Amino acid sequence: MLKDIRDGKYDAILAWHPDRLSRNMKEGGEIIDMIDEGIIKDMKFCAHHFSNVPSGKMLLEMAFVLSKEYSDRLSKNVKRGIGRNLGEGKTPIPKYGYINEELRYKPDGDNFTLICNGWEMRSSGEPIEKISQFRIKTTSTLSG
């Protein structure tokens, strides 16, 4: 979008809120510079008022700073939550060899055994082709 504005394709920005435009200070600074240079002539937002005066640019910069802080904080909180859930054995995504019961991993019987055997074969240096043949043979013997 900034490239298109610099190329003269547009001279204004229409967005929901300034936090939709920038998640880092570099982009926010580029937008402010483009306003100062007259490349961006106007900006309209549904949930924020902008006017091209010093206090209007200051409020826009503050909106960019707040969106950066929010984005950084959210990233840390999500990583911490995922780490805590994994530490407790919880996950919404089942893994091969496990079933997902109430967001907790539980071994999936024969499937779990097959996966364990496959990993043991691979760690002892067996080629993947041999492991996949073992799986096919074992699966057919287990099913019938």
Key traits:
mainly alpha, disordered C terminus, about 55% helix, about 140 residues, two-stranded antiparallel sheet, elongated, single chain, two-stranded parallel sheet
Strand content: 5-15%
> What's the SSE pattern?
HEHEHEEHH
The major beta sheet can be summarized as: 2 strands, parallel
Number of strands: 4
Distance between the termini: 60 Å
Task: Give the overall average pLDDT.
Answer: 85
Instruction: Supply the helix-strand structural class.
Output: mainly alpha
Brief write-up:
The chain has 144 residues and is mostly helical.
Your description of this structure?
The protein has a two-stranded parallel sheet with strand order 1-2. Strands 3-4 form a two-stranded antiparallel ribbon. The protein is 57% helix and 11% strand. The C terminus is likely disordered. The chain is mostly helical. It is elongated and about 70 Å long.
SSE layout:
Blueprint: H1 2-6, E1 12-15, H2 25-36, E2 42-45, H3 54-87, E3 98-101, E4 104-107, H4 109-123, H5 128-143
Parallel strand pairs: 1-2
Antiparallel strand pairs: 3-4
Helix pairs in contact: 2-3, 4-5
